[in-house]
Specification:
about 400 residues, alpha/beta, Rossmann fold, Nucleotidyltransferase, domain 5, 2 domains, 7-stranded mixed sheet, about 30% helix
């Protein structure tokens, strides 16, 4: 006997035909993504349907909704679907699921034909430019676009478009974790985490579990410009390196000076890489420059140097009454910064890098750890260019290597 695919009553309007775009938003564990994925599988079994699954930032299929759909197919034993490492196809009627990133992918998105339903996951990060490309691309008669998201900032483009301003034939569904409680679909461990956040971290609770947006004042860096590429006449100044541990990725960025400002170009943001691979990534770059790394791991810095990389640790000293983090952030804020289009992880971090807040929602002068990796790498590199405090790195003068930057006091 075939298993029944459960759909909470709160989402039943998805099956109606009187809407063009749907904004489905709320806090975590509100069943948004799981329910939309179920809805799409049902539709794909009923009739031949082309489903395009999008995210703003997607470097690989592993970062898409592919795994969630595959898990549900296995859970409900939907043997009419064939799962490959690139897509999902219904063997009986030809329905198919494709997976794409929106950012810096305009021509590829425009070339997709015959989309019946577009699903945009984590839509709080989607830019207005991506929305403007996607909307006319999904143009088939009766086609639909579903956005699922937890609000990030007050001016998230998708929420502003569909909920605040409103569009014709728009379906709006706002749900939170109480929906999962209602149906008994929430683990006890998650309930304990929710209650703990509610009692001890009320601001986090409101944002994480109730889906309330953060103030735009919490955004640390603003007004960065996105450019197509690094100009030919720019000058390479530094590489910035932030080490990754456990679940944090290692971030490497290149810093170029150009017409009074700085251009950031992503080299790599990867998990699970250590000294040898880091050295190879840097040595494979076309232009050479000094690498300024986090000073937290002198052993790894030395190992990278042994592989032939011109590298020094950043000096994390105070500037007056300000600690290094506050001072270096202000230093970056004072510069004119551009980022290349291909720097997907850096751009994502730029949009999501926020100040911490206290219980009373007062903004603190402390950055959140989330999305800090590439931002830290940028800070380390720019600090060494703009102002060079006395270095913490100690090495015998007899073996101190020459780095080719006479202005550096390392």
């Amino acid at each position: 006997m075939e298993k029944i695919i459960e759909i909470p009553t709160e989402f039943k309007r998805l099956f109606d035909d009187d809407w063009r775009e749907a904004a489905i938003y709320g806090g975590r564990y509100s069943l948004k993504s799981h329910t939309v994925a179920r809805f799409l599988l049902i539709r794909a079994r009923e009739n031949k349907t082309r489903v395009a699954c999008f995210r703003e930032f997607q470097n690989s299929i592993a970062e898409s909704s592919h795994q969630l759909l595959a898990d549900l197919i296995h859970k409900y034993e939907l043997n009419d679907f064939e799962i490959t490492d690139k897509g999902i196809v219904n063997k009986l009627n030809g329905s198919d699921f494709i997976f794409k990133g929106l950012w810096h992918n305009e021509q590829s998105i425009k070339s997709i034909e015959g989309i019946d339903i577009a699903w945009v996951e984590e839509a709080q990060t989607v830019s207005k430019q991506s929305i403007d490309v996607l909307t006319p691309t999904v143009r088939k008669k009766g086609s639909k676009i579903v956005y699922t998201y937890n609000r990030l900032l007050e001016d998230d483009p998708v929420h502003k478009r569909l909920v605040i301003e409103g569009r014709p034939d728009t379906l709006v569904i706002n749900v939170n974790y109480d929906t999962a409680i209602k149906y008994g679909w929430i683990p006890e461990e998650i309930l304990k985490e929710i209650e703990d956040d509610k009692e001890h971290r009320p601001t986090l609770y409101k944002h994480k579990w109730l889906g309330e947006p953060s103030s735009t004042e919490r955004k640390i860096f603003k007004d960065w410009e996105i450019v197509d590429e690094v100009p030919h006449h720019s000058k390479i100044e530094r590489y910035g390196l932030d080490y990754g541990y456990t679940n944090d990725p290692t971030a490497i960025v290149a810093i170029y000076s150009y017409q009074g400002g700085y251009i950031i170009d992503e080299v790599a943001v990867r998990k699970g890489v250590r000294a040898k691979v880091i050295a190879e990534l840097i040595l494979n770059q076309e232009r050479e420059a000094l690498v300024v790394a986090d000073s937290v791991d002198p052993e790894q810095t030395e190992e990278i140097r042994q592989h032939g990389v011109n590298i020094v640790p950043v000096s994390k000293t105070k500037s007056g009454t300000k600690n290094f983090v506050s001072w270096s952030i202000e230093l970056v804020q004072s510069q004119r910064i551009s980022v290349t289009k291909r720097s997907i992880n850096v751009i994502q971090a730029y949009h999501n890098y926020l100040w911490e807040v206290d219980r009373d929602e007062k903004i603190l002068n402390v950055p959140c750890h989330d999305y800090s990796d590439s931002m830290d790498a940028i800070r380390y590199a720019l600090v060494s260019i703009l102002k060079t405090p006395k270095a913490e790195y100690k090495q015998s003068p007899a073996v101190l290597p020459y780095y080719g930057d006479k202005d550096l006091a390392y």
